[in-house]
Amino acid sequence: MPTLPPSPAQDAILRDLTRELAARYPQSAARCDRRRVALLDQTSHAVRWNEPFMVTVARCDGAAIHELGGARLIDYWQGHFANLLGHNPPLVRAALQATLAEGRGLQSGMLHDVEHEFAELLVQRTGTETLRFTTSGALATFYAVLLARGFTGRRAVVKAAGGWHGSQPFALKGVAARAGSFDHLESEGLPGSTQDDVELCGYNDAASLERVFERRGGEVACVILEPWLGAGGGIGATPEFLRAARELSARHGALLIHDEIIAGFRFRAGDLSAMYGIRPDLLVLGKVIGGGMPVAAVCGRRDVMALASRAMRRVKFEGGTYSAHELSLVAGLTMVRHLVGHEAEIYPALARRGATLRDGLERIARELRLPAWISGWPNEVVAGSSVCHVRFGRDRGGRPLRPEETGGPGAAHPVVGEDLLRAALLLEGLSVHNGLGAASTAHGEAELRATLVGYRRALERLVAAGAFAG
Q1: How far is Cα 89 from Cα 31, in angstroms, rounded to an integer?
Q2: Which domains does the chain carry?
Q3: pLDDT band with cut points at 50, 70 and 90 for residue 179
Q4: Model-wide pTM > 0.85
Q5: pLDDT at 42
Q6: What is the dihedral of CA 185, 138, 440, 383, to 10 degrees?
């Protein structure tokens, strides 16, 4: 999410924090200098970088990452929100080690039993009919839209402003607000048709979605939505919004795609859509189902998926060299079987951790008189949530229902940006994303207490330095 331009005071604070960070983590600072030469922007994924400094990790376990110099940081980024059980859970590592010891697991280019075992389990847990694996969420959403366009013979794709569906041509519009609007492309080099083919609606705004269908209903191939926004703010969909998306797409002959790259298996041992009583035509899964390895899947109706079958070959969804990689699927199958077998304990425990963090941060913001937007709260159909995202507004805060409330065209753009906040929190031994991130089962009472103490100290420091003034 974009922020207001940093003030001179914030620039000065960030310079001071950078000097302290380099002194606190000297090996990481030296490594950053070395990385600049061969590696573009020092990383192959932009969100892993915090300007102007980021630690380099030596190892990870449970709730923590361990920096090159040995410092332990409590981590809420947790592998792009993939690590529901924390970093490197022993049961997944044991399964990977056993697979390699048996002389299998690395790329063979052949069929293996794990592929169909995992597919059967995912289809059963999501109520879908069939699936195909691929290696990333961006590829999975791309293939899902290709299928929808091929099945309907239409071109238009409707997505929610603020929604992130990966770096692919049908998603790179309306991700972040610029100059007070979401209505722009996010990248150069896109096909000339992307601007017209991708239509935006407001998240949790059924009336906005209806207006799109009134204008272009006969052209819409699909609606693609996150039932729980990730980069857009950690916000859950209202039941009314998802019901409207299901009803409008069905009425106009379009397909409904639910992107559950983040939401799938985070709130229950299955898809989040089922908690809303909604069945999309296509369901996209990733992150948690990989157990820390690269796995994504497109699941859904057999008649739609059949367009990519050998019999039809109408949609070129044939994966890639590393699709259904055996070692990745061993990790994923191990993870999902564990979640299914321990669902009754895992998800209430995650919900309690999320509630502790959200309640604690809301209390700290209130006591410091800081207008905080804290998201991740459960709703009438999702009983608990491990998610906690934090933004600080200029003059008001709350519990957001739309991306515009925390970082879009509205009046409450974050007054303190992610770079400044993350830098202050790194000095308190906290690794965060989107203001905090999400708890794992590895975050115990000690980590939660230390998080709230460290967060308060970081905010007090920023307040005293004038970061929130003006």
Answers
A1: 27
A2: 8-75+345-465 (3.90.1150.10), 91-341 (3.40.640.10)
A3: confident
A4: yes
A5: 83
A6: 70
